Amino acid sequence: MAATHHEETHPPLDGPSSPAQVLLREPLVLHNRSYSWITERICGIIEKPQPKLWWMLFIPSVLLFSIMAYLFAYLIATGVGVWGQNHPVAWGWDITNFVFWIGIGHAGTLISAILFLTRQRWRTSVARAAEAMTIFAVMCAGLYPALHVGRVWMAWFLAPIPNSNAIWQNFKSPLLWDVFAVSTYFTVSVLFWYLGLIPDLGTIRDRCKPGIKKALYGLFALGWRGGNRQWNHYEMAYLLLAALSTPLVLSVHTIVSFDFATSVVPGWHATIFPPYFVAGAIFGGFAMVLTLMLPVREIYGLQDLLTWKHIDNMAKIILLTGTIVGYAYLSELFIAWYGGNKFELDAFMLRIKDGPYVWAYVAMMFCNVVSPQIFWFKKMRQNWFVVFLVCNFVNAGMWFERFVIIVTTLARDFVPGAWDMFHPTWVDIMTFVGSFGFFLMNFLLFLRFLPVIAIAEVKGILPQSDPHGRARDPRSITEQEVRGEPIPDGFGPAPAPATTHPIAA
Amino acid sequence: MSHHFVSVSTLPAGGEKLDLSRIGKWTALLRLGAIAGLVLSAVLFVAGGAIKIGSKDFVSGEAISYTVREAFSYSWLFAFYVFFTLALGGLFWTLLHNASNSSWGVVIRRLPETLAVQFVPLLFLGLPLLFPQVRETLWTWMHDHSVAAKSGEAGSLKDALHHSNHLLYHKLNYLTLWWGAVPGFIPRFFIYFLLLGVGAYALRGWSVSQDTTGDVRPTLSARRFSCGWLPLFAISLTFAGFDWIKGLNYAWFSTMFGVNVFAGSAVASMALLIVITVTLFENGYLKRVLTAEHLHLMGKLMHAFTIFWAYIAFSQYFLIWYANIAEETQFYAIRNTGGWNYYSTFLVTIGHFFIPFILLLPRAAKKNFKRVRAIALWILFAHVCEAYWFIIPERGPKLADQPAIIWAVMLDAAAFVTIGCVVALTFLKSLAQHSLYPCGDPRLQESINVIN
Question: Which of A505, B55, B264, B303 has the fewest CB atoms within 10 Å, measured from its CB?
């Protein structure tokens, strides 16, 4: 059996730094952790008292959330004039923040749904937190346009409900499509997140002592017993929701891009906007996931579940999508010049050279295109501080991107006489800061009460979960297999005879 | 479906080679087509300048005529573009496979690698486009340049254009033949081929070297190289699309166009890879290494990129339609007029999206070799239609109602068959040089036994 050409041709594997070892698939759970270790570690976060740091973050975020709630009351009582909007900048920080948060709300479902459909098994450790982040970010996003309508109590007019004034929505407007897209996305994201939680809720329920806690977890676990039929239905439902979410993920930011690109405003009307916005959202979303998960991983000791392999993968996605966003920026500039439309060119020249907001464009370029390029180097992708820093550059850069698109474009209207600068008021600033408080507060509560990593899913990718043994699991390919030797022990079926054909013709 | 585990130690040492003598009749036919086509094309290019085809102007309805050479120039660009995009897609899938450190595709990777090295015959086949009589027909800005330069107005070409054509004058730093602020059209033509060709040859070289040595280092080199080459690939593709296709009407512009070219290339070349893979399998090749899982994965990628293409093409159309700015709508205006309207609606939208999208939905369709190949053939057909739709409407006459159209379509077919035969022949020859699958790749066993 062993006498093959491969033994002659493959060089011996010498030492841990041999190239063949580099080709080995890195395990997604380190130190060969057992099922029970995983359950204990993740449930422990919920069951043990929270560390001091949790409280140190939670209390200020509640305070900030309260300020935001107060400011919203103030805005509703007074009017949109408390924000810095003016003529011509009718969309200011509010829509900037809306697009910023909705973009962050993208990565969660992307990780969960698209990476699920593409069988990216590393998703399991980050999917849950990313989905939760999605939901909280979409909640933050939704607040801004809802309040921007001015008379908030009339916001129900956005829904196509027959009313006595016979006022009907403008179905030709992308702004209305946004209402449908975002609300659908939010609904499906919540369902998807909740569905994934059910087996884990069952686990937590079973570990609770009888009492109100057990009753509540039990209520939300929907009678989960982990039987064969339940798993069967669960997995089918999960697959279907993943397939349903995927077009939704893409549609939401596409329609947000339509809000701008369907107009004839120079600087907004570019055909590349839809994929550029989607790439930007994935980019910003992954940066936010890492911003949250890098500390969580350290604080709760999840290094074996959220490994450097995961961080490396996400850093690579940030590099890729950041470069795609850079491609879009440069395409816009090139076509603004090539197209020969004077107004288009002027809009971009104002952004990059002649206008008052050049600093914002430079900040955007540096944060989104230049800073992620450091991830070309593996050493940098493996450096906690660098990854955290770049992710925060990206968070800032994506906010600047929306600011550049919205405010700098509007501030320079067609008629120079109408030009005006945008100055945020204290209400603008504190509302935005408050929305971070709201976001963080929700995330901290999520950490406190729900499993931050999908317990059942992580167990599913352990080598011992594979019914076919190591031979069927590409993640567990051994050195012998890389060399092409037959499998040495009882794991998996024996190599097939040479005459056997892999396909039943 | 149950698979038996296959160990690479049970595979033949040198892999499998394509036996060209088994398909001698086909290669002879391709050779005949290539030689006859090249001779005919040379005649059409050289003597076609003197033969006229009558037609009607598609806007005014007035009688116009153009020479066979003028008509054939568009035919040649169309055929060249189709095969160029297939090679582009081949390079893309190779780059993606290596850059993403993926294993499933090792079994079929030799095919996109071989597809990508067809940039060399394509470079030679693209040379006719650089002749003044051909390029000045296709890219009207070159014609306007030469008219302006000959107009005898004082000063340089720049001065002449400044008065006669401000839009073109504005782009003079880019739309030049040799050198403006950036390399002009002709140097850029060679730069694209250089960047794409180097990428294709480097990756194939590493892959082939493993066939005999089984060394793992080329895999690592290919991975690093591919990551670095992807941006260069994207730039080449974008500007090739701008120069050759968007440049047919220099007044039109769209930031999405490069992505549109990319989406079409990726889906069409995956379709071609499926067709080739299944055909090889049916003829007794790859039997030990290829499983329905591979076809399933390829089918899924083809499906995903079908959707991606539709997303891109629709977004571009929709945004231009919605904003309704004259300088942008001109591209769609001529493609939504007369016979082209039916053509656009059916082949470019339904054919390129709705039909393959629905057919590819069931898993069974992607795992069934014959069915997935049939769908792949349809997607290839739709891709050819899209290329035709990009280029031929710029030639002028309406699609229907013209006696001349029959001649024009025959010229298009002749160019397509010529370039198709040449590229198919060189593809088969390059494929036969080495094993049909990378038999020394360290990830081969992982790839053969892939499940998804």
Answer: A505
Q: What is the ipTM of this complex?
A: 0.93
* Sign of CA pseudo-dihedral A410, A413, A418, A420: positive
On the question of pLDDT at B371 being above 90, the answer is yes
Is residue A482 one of the residues assigned to a domain?
Answer: no
Give me the domain span that covers residue A413.
64-158+170-461
Establish if B316 touches chain A: CB-CB under 8 angstroms.
Answer: yes
pLDDT tens across B34-63, in order? 999 999 999 999 998 888 876 666 556 677
- pLDDT > 90? residue B243: yes
- CB B9 to CB A493 under 8 A? no
Interface A:B, Cβ pairs < 8 A: 159
Q: Are B340 and B397 in contact (CB under 8 A)?
A: no
CB contact under 8 A, B323 and A269: yes
Residues of A in contact with B215 (CB under 8 A): 11, 19
> Which of A330, A338, A348, A375 would best serve as a mutation to test chain B binding (most B beta carbons within 10 A)?
A338
State the smallest CA–CA distance between residue B319 and chain A in angstroms: 5
Among B213, B253, B315, the residue with its CB nearest the CB of A9 is B213
CA A15/CA B307 separation, integer angstroms: 46
Closest to A357 (Cα-Cα) out of A425, A405, A424, A414 = A405
Candidate from A411-420, A443-452, A461-470, B26-35 with smallest mean pLDDT = A461-470
A137-191 pLDDT per residue, tens: 999 999 999 999 888 888 888 888 887 878 888 899 999 999 999 999 999 999 9
Structure tokens at B73: 């120039």
Classify residue A405: in a domain, yes or no.
yes
Cis bond before residue A372 (omega within 30° of 0): no
- Of A19-23, A85-89, A96-100, B260-264, the one with minimum mean pLDDT is A19-23
Give the mean pLDDT of chain A. Answer: 87
Is B278 within 8 Å of chain A by CB? no
Q: Looking at beta carbons, which residues of chain B come within 8 Å of A122? A: none
CB contact under 8 A, A472 and B451: yes
For residue A113, list chain B residues with Cβ-Cβ distance below 8 A. Answer: none
Mean pLDDT of all residues in A36-47? 94
Is residue A141 included in any domain, yes or no? yes
What is the least distance, in Å, from the CA of A162 to any CA of chain B? Answer: 27
CB atoms within 10 A of CB B17: 15
Q: What is the token pair recorded at A312?
A: 């490396």
List Cβ<8 Å contacts ≥24 apart for A318-321: A318/A283, A318/A286, A318/A287, A318/A290, A318/A372, A318/A375, A318/A390, A318/A391, A318/A394, A319/A372, A319/A373, A319/A375, A319/A376, A321/A279, A321/A280, A321/A282, A321/A283, A321/A286
pTM score, whole prediction: 0.91
Q: Is the Cα torsion angle A453, A459, A463, A467 positive or negative in sign? A: negative
Chain A residue numbers with beta carbons less than 8 Å from the beta carbon of B234 are 327
CATH code of A283's domain: 1.20.1630.10
Domain count, chain A: 1
- Tell me the shortest Cα–Cα distance from A342 to chain B, in angstroms: 10
Please, which pLDDT band fits residue B122 given cuts at 50, 70 and 90?
A: very high
Q: Nearest Cα to A57, choosing from A334, A436, A467?
A: A436
Position A146 in a domain: yes
Q: Does B181 touch chain A (CB under 8 A)?
A: no
Neighbours of B368 (CB within 10 A): 18
pLDDT in tens, B143-186: 888 887 777 655 677 777 777 788 888 888 899 898 888 899 99
* Contact residues for B297 (Cβ-Cβ < 8 A; gap 6+): B104, B105, B450, B452
Query: In angstroms, rounded to a whole number, what is the distance separating the alpha carbons of residues A113 and A127?
Result: 9
Kindly calculate the radius of gyration of chain B based on its CA atoms and give it in whole angstroms: 23
Please give the distance of CA A405 from its chain centroid, rounded to a whole number: 21
